[in-house]
Amino acid sequence: MTLYGVGLGPGDAGLVTVRGRETLEAADVVYTPGRLSRTVALNYVAESQLGDLDFPMTRDEDELRRAWKAAAAEVAPVAADGTAAFVTLGDPNVYSTFGHLRRTLSRFHPAVDVEVVPGVSTVTAFATALDVEITAGSDLVLREAANGRAPAGPDRMVLFKVTDVPATHEGLVEAGYDVTFGRRLYMENHETVVTDDPERLEERDYYTVAYAERPDAGERPATAAFGRETTADGGAPGGDAREELATAEAAGDGDARRTGVGDE
Ligand SMILES: C[S@@+](CC[C@H](N)C(=O)[O-])C[C@H]1O[C@@H](n2cnc3c(N)ncnc32)[C@H](O)[C@@H]1O
Questions:
Q1: Which of 13, 16, 63, 177 is most open to solvent, judged by the fewest CB atoms within 10 Å of its CB?
Q2: What is the CATH number of domain 2-120?
């Protein structure tokens, strides 16, 4: 008896993992928390596999607890007789509704096993979409910035739920950040916007993420500061670097020194 939490990735069916797809195809019932996740799931499951759960749009905690108890009561017998899956956009363990279901099952239906199939989260997808490199050694903090909020402090932040882009932009710029926004990244049948111009994103859209970075943030990776090598000599090391490489090679460490790569 298993409930699988399956991460669908940001919204492009091509970014669902192979394991996620196989899990969905094999599930007896697939529950979807919203229209977007349902559309992505339907690439891999038949309409008849979809289950029905009701999710109220409320912040009232009593109402939320009642709704999640009802959802768990619906899912538990399905998982007892076979396999159920609950999909989320991104990853099920990152800022996700799946946590509520998992906690409720564990409290009221502890016999149900829960397994998670990770998905491509906005936390990683944003970097490629916004053409940002988070270099090794960087600190990166996740925050929410709903309704114009502009949290500040860390050197680098990924901000979820950026519903009032102009207000959040103003606050972050005042606090000294460079900011880039991404809307509907890797979402099928939707326009993707990546911009640092808040006026392009005046309309409210929940599927908006921001990346804020202080201009002086940053570790300097070795390759950001080349010396006298030129493209003409193929970047061949000269002087001190050649000596260092010879020493490293004598110690049997030449490949790692040449490429800067060990096992990740
Ligand atoms: C409740 S969080 C869910 C995060 C999700 N579990 C994940 O791992 O990406 C919802 C927020 O994620 C961000 N988000 C999710 N998918 C997105 C997408 N395709 N493009 C831009 N932002 C997205 C938005 O900031 C949205 O308000």
A1: 63
A2: 3.40.1010.10
User: CA-CA distance, 239 to 233, in Å (whole number)?
Assistant: 14
Q: What's the CATH superfamily of 123-213?
A: Tetrapyrrole methylase, C-terminal domain (3.30.950.10)
Distance separating alpha carbons of residues 177 and 220, to the nearest angstrom: 19
The first and second tokens of residue 18, run together, are 């192979």
pLDDT in tens, 142-163: 999 999 999 999 999 999 999 9
Tell me the backbone φ, ψ of residue 102, rounded to 5 degrees: -60, -45
For residue 47, the tally of other CB atoms under 10 A from its CB is: 7
Ligand 1 pocket check for 161: Cβ under 6 Å: yes
- Dihedral, CA of residue 129, residue 135, residue 96 and residue 13, to nearest 10: 40
Hey, what are 72's tokens? 């768990």
pLDDT at 235 over 80: no
Best residue among 88, 94, 160, 205 to mutate for probing ligand 1, ranked by most atoms within 8 Å of CB: 160
